[in-house]
Design goal:
This protein is an alpha/beta fold. The chain has a single domain, classed as 4-Layer Sandwich (Metallo-beta-lactamase, Chain A). About 20% of the residues lie in helices and about 25% in strands. It has 6 helices and 15 strands. It has a 6-stranded mixed sheet. A hairpin with a 2-residue loop joins strand 2 and strand 3.
Length: about 260
Amino acid sequence: MMKPFDTPPELASSDLDLVICGFPGKSTCHGGLGWSTVALLRQGGRIALVDAGNFGMRKLLIEQLAQRGLKPSEVTDLLLTHSHYDHSVNWTLFRDARIVVGAVEMDWALTVPWGETPVPELYVRALSDWPTCERVEDGAEVFPGMTAHLAPGHTPGCLIFHWRTPARDVIFTGDAAKNRAELISRDTDMTYDAAVSRATIGMIWDKWRERSGTVVVPGHDLPMVLDGNQPRYLGKRKASIRAWFGKDTGTLTELDLAVDQD
């Protein structure tokens, strides 16, 4: 099976591997795509995932981990940026892992009206009582060399994760900044308060500029580094849909969604 993302040379020597790379798009007729990034980290014998993807990714996640010689049960840490279904619902695949979620996020997610938001209500409710769930505060160390930082806007308790390694820093923004367009414009597509989101994106930029070569991994886009003051993509996007538009199940039409990137 083809890998959904080929690790670029800039990341080849690091302990970061994008198991699934998110896509910066929305469906026009069928609701949200929910194609989010899932990142694999290795450090000191521990194996972590940042976010867990949506229901449609379950088979893909298992297959991609197997290609890396791993089973879901071998993941030691699951670090959730926020509670929306496309980032959190597959926590049950990693139920033996230590599952990190923001304390502010969990408090909020447990109070949203059922059936009205992207929060998977029953899964969040079960997670809140799960014995390996750990609610963390702003500034907590959640993985060796990695700190969590409250990044409200998309949700009240979104976290970003800042991982400091000898080779480079890596910042996982989740949906606090979903894609390059949001990072550059500082406008966001889904936020409860635009000004709060702009302040959060400003904080992300401040951290991005602290160290040359820092990689930003958004929730729904390719990883990026700064060239001067401009974000540059790392790697190439892969995204397509196969559809049965013909008269038999063997006839498939492939629609390429990976348009040219600048």
